[in-house]
Design a protein that fits this description.
The chain is of the alpha/beta class. It is built from eleven helices and nine strands. Helix 3 crosses helix 4. 39% of the residues are buried.
């Protein structure tokens, strides 16, 4: 069964999820995903039976609203999306602009779902005032309502009754996690989340992030971090410090579609870090940890 993806977020870990799942223990009570985005790891873990309960979260309230609706009001979310999508046919560009302006006033989750599905490369972007400012992809109209409804219904069937959505900081998940839980963290790329390139809803405070991971280590929390990486000669931020004693695995994702179109052979590599407590659990389960993994599928989109 193919994992459903109702929220087509750029940067989704859908293709990497099978590798990430190999680094989850078989006895996780609750899996936390506090930078949820498309929730690809949560969805894959639920399909594989790798945790008994799930907590998805983000500080972007409308995104959490999408997840809460999928868990509790899936039909209403699909209906709202369909109404927004169907209204675009007379003038798709003007409709997108109107929905974007309305979302920036009202912060309606269903409008955000439409904007994500319709915008360029499904790349969610915000300006310094916190307003959605990405442009539409004028070559397409976004996910058709019937397909979106199937995906929303599939996530509802998979997670309803054993998952909850929270609008909260990632630190809350690290502090709430017990020793039999696991936290999966996928923060925005450090190289493109601050300064002049602050394209995400919220950037990452790197010194605070490192301190929070150190505190989680002291509590024996099992966590994984997808953190930065490189594409060809371009890197996205530093390694996490050796003082955290994390196990690092490089996931070789392959060439991006853009690199292929431009005739380049740049390979995208993402870093996956495992906490000491998680490494101990995996080794107790007889899991062999690798320093290098490779995704064997189509080029990265």
């Amino acid at each position: 069964m193919t994992a459903p993806q109702p929220i087509p977020y750029q940067g989704s870990k859908r293709r990497l999820a099978p590798i990430i799942l190999r680094h989850l223990p078989g006895d996780a009570a609750t899996l936390y995903e506090p930078f949820v985005g498309s929730g690809a790891v949560t969805i894959a873990a639920a399909m594989a039976g790798r945790a008994r309960a799930f907590v998805v979260g983000d500080t972007l309230a409308p995104l959490v609203g999408i997840w809460d609706a999928m868990l509790h009001r899936s039909a209403l979310l699909a209906d709202r999306y369909e109404a927004i999508w169907e209204a675009q046919h007379v003038d798709p560009r003007a409709h997108f602009d109107a929905v974007r302006a309305s979302f920036n006033r009202e912060r309606d989750p269903a409008q955000l779902l439409y904007l994500v599905a319709r915008c360029v490369k499904n790349a969610v972007r915000f300006n310094a005032d916190g307003d959605f400012n990405q442009s539409p992809d004028n070559r397409r109209l976004g996910v058709k309502p019937a397909a979106l409804r199937r995906r929303v219904d599939a996530v509802h069937a998979l997670l309803a009754g054993r998952a909850r959505a929270v609008c909260a900081d990632y630190g809350d998940s690290l502090r709430a996690a017990a020793r039999d839980d696991v936290v999966y963290l996928d923060p925005p790329y450090l190289g493109v989340s601050g300064g002049r390139d602050g394209r995400y809803h919220q950037g990452l405070d790197y010194p605070r992030f490192v301190a929070d991971l150190a505190a989680a280590n002291a509590r024996g929390v099992s966590y994984l971090v997808s953190f930065d990486g490189r594409s060809g000669a371009k890197t996205y931020g530093p390694d996490l410090p050796e003082s955290l004693a994390l196990h690092k695995s490089e996931i070789h994702v392959g060439r991006s579609s853009q690199a292929t179109l431009n005739g380049r052979t740049d390979e995208t590599v993402e870093s996956l870090y495992l906490s000491p407590a998680l490494v101990a659990r995996l080794r107790a389960d007889g899991v062999a940890l690798r320093d290098r993994e490779r995704v064997r599928s189509r080029p990265l989109e």
